[in-house]
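Figure-free illustration: sequence to structure, shown twice.
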Amino acid sequence: MGFIVWLIVGGIVGWLASLVMRTDGQQGIILNIVVGIVGAVIAGLIFGGGNINSSDPLDLTNILYSLLGAIILLAIVNLVRRGSVR
């Protein structure tokens, strides 16, 4: 059940991050899920001291940290791809 929650929350967080970074037209649902989950891992490394499974994945604080991690990921991808962050 936890895996399904990761996929759903990851998809929503990845979609929101792609809207913020204006890359929504370039991404599909699978890439949104990947961005959301990798963003959660990045946020866990930055804010959680390396622990990404410390508490409830549906906690609002964890979702906001995951969103911030996904935005950081998309900014890095944009920087590498285009040479500038939008």
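We now fold a second protein in the same way, so the two outputs can be compared directly.
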Amino acid sequence: MANSQSVQITKGSDNVFKDLGFEAEEAMNLKIRADLMLQLRSYIEAQGWTQQQAAAFFEETQPRISNLLNGDITRFSIDKLINMLAKTGMKIKVELYR
């Protein structure tokens, strides 16, 4: 017998943290950090580095790189992530919109 439960789909915004109920300021900060962390993770994966190799490149500890790769967003500030991205040679563009 088929299950006849209905599924309701709600379209989210461009910020999952806002959708989860975080205050606007915190949601924006978390979104920015998450985006920066994803870029760093992609860079590390593209290099084919181990966590130890990434740690040496970024002058961080291996556990810190593990935190980054596991998405432990609470352990990184926007400033720290930007400084790490600067070491890769990537450029950062800030775009504001309403």
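Summary for the second example: The mean pLDDT is 92.
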